[in-house]
Task: structure prediction
Amino acid sequence: MMDRNKVKKVKFFYRFLCGFIVSVCLFSIIGIVVMLFEEGIDLRILFFSLAVGVMLHVSASVMLTGYPPKYLRWTSGHE
Result:
């Protein structure tokens, strides 16, 4: 894996876009909880929860730190 000092920091536009994705993910968590109470535990809810969780983790990491998570550092360009 690459160190943080070898990876370019994400630009402001993409950090703003990640902030929008975080807000959408927070609303979708509310929808998942409502769907859980309405329909009970279903395989769809588990898939939705997993997808939203991964999107929320990656977007919040980029938004707050300016760098991707460690397992995605290979996707950023070198400085």
